[in-house]
């Protein structure tokens, strides 16, 4: 009789412990912070608005948005903007000079922005002067407590030929982004190289470049996946 009672008490105690543990886990799970909506921004550094770089970034951002409904995307085109790279040296703006970089500061430093994808055409094996001016002016973020730190970064380059310097251009931009303490990623599987390499065949429609579009989609997906992981 006493053995049965002891066994009953033991089973009851185990059951209670299991129930308490389950309840505790439920409470902990409910209190565990969950990521809110995050934003991924694509920056087209082409002097030509709405052309192949912008079109490629749209493919990239569409793939990023498809990863999770919490992801918002935005495309910023630098075409027609005035960004003076020389001001990164601390020189004052000339009287009457206009500069649009200040408009980008609150957008890019917003904590909600967890991913930034920089896209540029390839000019003589490297980025455009507009892209370089942007990266130089980003010294403002280093001076402001590294405001871009731990944001995920990806790079897309559009060349006039299949092997037109895209990878060299991507690496050059990545070097600048690493100096911002950003988390730099390449395009994801199955292409899985250093970034999105797109070929503009001269017909103005980069979507016919199947391999390039695959790298653009994979890059967008990779930036989104890593950004979500960091936001958890």
State the oligomer.
single chain
Report mean pLDDT, rounded to a whole number: 86
The end-to-end span amounts to 53 Å
Q: Number of DSSP strands?
A: 6
The major β-sheet equals: 6 strands, parallel
- CATH topology (level 3) name of the largest domain: Rossmann fold
Q: By CATH's scheme, which homologous superfamily of the largest domain applies?
A: Flavodoxin domain
Helix tally equals: 7
CATH class descriptor of the largest domain: Alpha Beta
Strand content: 15-25%
**Computed structural class:** alpha/beta
Q: Globular, elongated, flat, extended or rod-shaped: what is the shape? A: globular
Q: Give the helix level as a range of percent.
A: 40-55%
Number of individual domains: 2
Order of helices and strands: HEHEHEHHEHEEH
Low-pLDDT parts are 1-35
**Radius of gyration (Å):** 24 Å
What is the CATH architecture term of the largest domain? 3-Layer(aba) Sandwich
Describe the protein's architecture and organization.
This protein is of the alpha/beta class. It has two domains: 32 residues; 196 residues, Rossmann fold (3-Layer(aba) Sandwich), CATH 3.40.50.360. 44% of the residues lie in helices and 16% in strands. The chain has seven helices and six strands; from the N terminus they run αβαβαβααβαββα. Strands 1, 2, 3, 4, 5 and 6 form a six-stranded parallel sheet that branches. α2 packs across α7. The longest helix is centred in the first third of the chain and has 30 residues. It is globular, with a radius of gyration of 24 Å. The N terminus is likely disordered.
């Amino acid at each position: 009789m006493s053995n049965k009672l002891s066994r009953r008490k033991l089973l009851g105690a185990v059951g209670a412990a299991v129930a308490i543990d389950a309840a505790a886990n439920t409470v902990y799970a409910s209190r565990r912070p969950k990521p809110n909506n995050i934003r991924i921004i694509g920056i087209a550094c082409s002097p030509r608005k709405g052309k192949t770089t912008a079109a490629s970034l749209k493919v990239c951002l569409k793939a990023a948005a498809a990863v999770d409904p919490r992801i918002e995307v935005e495309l910023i085109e630098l075409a027609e903007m005035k960004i003076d790279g020389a001001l990164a040296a601390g020189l004052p703006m000339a009287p009457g000079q206009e500069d649009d970089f200040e408009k980008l500061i609150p957008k890019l430093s917003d904590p909600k922005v967890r991913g930034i994808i920089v896209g540029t055409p390839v000019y003589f094996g490297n980025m455009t002067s507009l892209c370089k001016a942007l990266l130089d002016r980003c010294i403002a973020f280093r001076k402001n407590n590294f405001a871009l730190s731990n944001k995920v970064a990806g790079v897309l380059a559009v060349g006039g030929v299949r092997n037109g310097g895209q990878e060299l251009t991507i690496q050059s931009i990545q070097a600048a982004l690493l100096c911002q303490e950003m988390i730099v990623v390449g395009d994801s599987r199955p292409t899985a190289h250093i970034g999105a390499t797109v070929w503009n065949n001269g017909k103005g429609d980069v979507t016919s470049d199947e391999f390039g579009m695959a790298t653009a989609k994979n890059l967008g997906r990779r930036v989104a996946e890593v950004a979500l992981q960091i936001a958890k």
